[in-house]
Amino acid sequence: MKKKAVRYFLVFGFLFSFFMATGQSQIDKNACIKAMASGNVSQIDVLQKQLQKTSGAEKEAYEGALLMRKAETLAVPAKKLALFKKGHKKLEAAILYAPSNTEFRFLRLMVQEHAPKNLGYNKNIMQDAELIKTNYKSLSAAMQTQISDYSKSSKALKDINN
Q1: What are the pLDDT digits (tens) for 1-42?
Q2: pLDDT given at position 160
Q3: Is 9 exposed, middle or buried (0-12, 13-18, 19+ CB in 10 A)?
Q4: In whole angstroms, what is the distance from residue 149 CA to residue 158 CA?
């Protein structure tokens, strides 16, 4: 009886891992980063809806970054701050879960470099930039392209291609 229970547990664990990984892979990372760069609210809204179909730390990181970027476009200061804080919690939770994840740190760097100084959300710029530079060559070609493109307007990553 115990062997049968162990087999069910292993099969369930495998299937759960498979579905979690499948859900995470549905994130269009390039589209998310482009939407963040452009600040296009309709693109951000579409991507947020797509992210609702996924789960895991990647979802939290990308959703958090998109929410913070969207906050910049709102007119009412109280709504801006509330949305920024909501996104902040999600992104920081993902980074806490996976502190060495270079993509998550890149998302945070993008937000921090453009966040208003009075929010105080700029304390990890140099730390994030160093991690990105260190791990740059091990990232996917698509992510390297995104970082390289972003580095053209970034103070912290200006020398990434050297």
Answers
A1: 555 443 433 333 333 343 344 444 489 999 999 998 888 999
A2: 85
A3: exposed
A4: 10
Task: Using DSSP, state whether 40 is helix, strand or coil.
Answer: coil
Q: 99-114 b/e with 16+ CB inside 10 Å = b?
A: eebbbbbbbbbbbbbb
Map residue 68 onto helix, strand or coil: helix
User: If you count them, how many residues does the chain have?
Assistant: 162
Position 20 scores a pLDDT of: 41
Burial class, 71, CB count within 10 angstroms (exposed 0-12 / middle 13-18 / buried 19+): buried
The secondary structure of 1-33 as a DSSP string is -HHHHHHHHHHHHHHHHHHHHHHHHT--HHHHH
65 Cβ contact list (under 8 Å, min separation 6): 32, 36, 87, 91, 107, 108, 110, 111
Provide mean pLDDT across the span 81-91. 97
Distance (Å, whole) CA 107 – CA 102: 9
The dihedral of CA 57, 30, 152, 140: what is its sign?
A: positive
Residue 90's CB is within 10 A of a number of other CB atoms, namely: 21
Residue 93 clears pLDDT 90, i.e. is over it: yes
